[in-house]
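Troubleshooting log. The previous structure file for this entry was overwritten by mistake, so regenerating from the original sequence record. Sequence copied from the archived sheet and checked twice against the printout by T.R.
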Amino acid sequence: MNPTRIFAWYESAIGRDALAYLLACEQDIREGIPQEGIQLSKTQISTVENLAQLTAATLSNESKISEAHNLVRGWLIQFTADGISNAREIHNNSKGITQEAEAPREPTAAAVHEVALDTYCAFLLPSNHPGIPTQIINPFASISMSQHPRRQEFIDFAMQDAKLARVFTGPDEPFGRSMSYLSNVGFGGALQLDLLLETILQRAWLIESCRVSPEAFAIASVEQFRMVRSTLQKSECPSIATFHLTGALLPTGSKVEIAGGTLRETTESERRNSPFPPRGEISGSDETGQHVVVNYDGDITLEIPFKYRHKVLTGRDGDHRKWMEENSSFAEAQRTVTRIRFALLLATNRNHRVQIIPTAQSFDIPPSSMPYIAWLDVKPRGMMPTQLTDGEVSNWSSWYEKLNSAGVDHIELAMRRTLRALSERTDPTDVLIDSVIAWENIFGTPEGEPTFRITMCLSSLLKKDPAERAKLQSTLSDIYNLRSQIVHGNKDLKPAEVPFCHQALDVAIEAIRKLVEERPDILSLSDGSKRSKKLLLGN
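Regenerated output below.
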C-alpha cells in the first residue's frame, strides 16, 4: 500500500478538506501532508487501507475516473445500519473514538446536532457545478440531509411545538406543510416544513468559522435552529444588512464605528465565499503619484444592524402596503448608504472627488437558507481609486455624524440626485438635470417664479460679497433656464454649454455642505418654501 498514491487519488476525488476529515487530521492535511515519510497512527493506517479497498472496488468495473469519483462521493454520504453516514464512521474510526460529544437534551435540537455531524463531510465535497461555491449549491449536502434517518424525527418534533405548528399552517399536500411570508426588506417567500432542517444547516454552513470541525458545525447548526425557531415564533429578530462599496481603500486594519453601523475592510473570506465571480479591478494614480488598485467587488464593507420582521400570510390578507410602510428596513438602510457616500464626498479635499459606489448588498433573512443578495451593475463615471488616510477616515466619520442629523431627511432627494449625477450619469445633460433637481429639492417652492427664488437662495448661501453674489446668481439663472429649455424639448445641449452641467453639480454639493455645516437652522425647516424664506428674509 502506498499512502501517497491513495492520498493523491482521494484528494482528486473528494477534495483535500474531505480527505482531511476522513483521516481525522484536518490541520496536517490542510497545510499539506508530506508526501514521503508521513507518520500515521494505527487507526489512520487502517483508514487508508479501507480507502484503498474502496478505490479498487470502484475501479474494478473499468469505470471512468469521473464516474469512480462520483461513486466514492455517493458512498460517503450513505448511511450505515447504525444510522450514521459512512464518512462519519470513517472519521470516528480514524480518530479512535467510540463515543462522541453529548448531544443537546432537547429532542429537536438533538436531531439537528446529529444530522449536522453526519452531513459535515457532504458539505466538504466538491460541487458538480464549476464556478459556483459549494456553500451555494452542493447536491451532496442536499441529498445527505434529505435522506437522513432522523429527518422525519426532526419534523415530528417540530410539529409538537405549538407555536411552530401555528406557523406551518399550509396544506399537507402536495409539498407538505408550509408558511408564506412578507418581509420588511421588500420581498416575500415561502418555507416548507420539509425543508426547515436544510435551511438551518445551510445557514450554519455559511458561517465560515464554523466549518473548521464537525463539532463546531453541529454547535452552530443548533444555534441557528434556535434562532430560526425564535424568529418564526416572534416574526422578528436582530439582523444585519451588508453593503460592499468600491472606489476607495481604508487604511490597513481600520474599523470605523458610526451611528447605526460599522465600516471595515472587505475580508478575503467574503471575496472567497461570494456567490458571484470576481468582476475585475480599476487602477489609477492620485496627485501624489501613489498607484491605487480597487476591486469592483468592493473593498469597503458597511454593516448595518436592523430589526428583521416578517408577516405570515394567511391567504385572507388584503393590501400589504401599510404594513410595509410601517416596518420597512430597506429604505432606512439605503438612507444610511446615501449619507455614508455623501459624507466621504464632503470629508476629502483632493484634486479629484473621492467617491464610493455600492456594488453588492445583502440582507440576512432567517426564514431563508441564503441572505437576500443583490449584485449591482457598477459603471462609475470619473471614479478615481483612492487610498484614504487616517485623517480622511476620521473626517469622514465626523461628516457622517453631521449628515445623520434629523434635518438632513428634508434634503434626502437632493443628496441622492447629486450622487447620481456624480457617479452614474455619463451624459452631461443628465448631470445637469439631476443637479438642478437637487437645487429644487433644497429651495424649490410652488409659490411664485422659481428661477429667481432658487438661484437667489443658492447665491446668498454660497457667497457673502454682494458683487460675487450677484454674479453667481446671474450664472445660476442661465443654468436653470438651460435646464428648463432642455427638459421641455426646446433645445439640445451644445458642447460649449457642458461646463454649465458640471458647475450645476458643484453648486449642489457646496450648497449641501454649507447647509449642514453652517445653517442647520435652515436645514431643520420641513420644505423648500420655508427654507428659502428663512434664508432670504431671515425670519
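The CA atoms of residues 478 and 500 lie 9 Å apart. Archived copy saved in two places this time.
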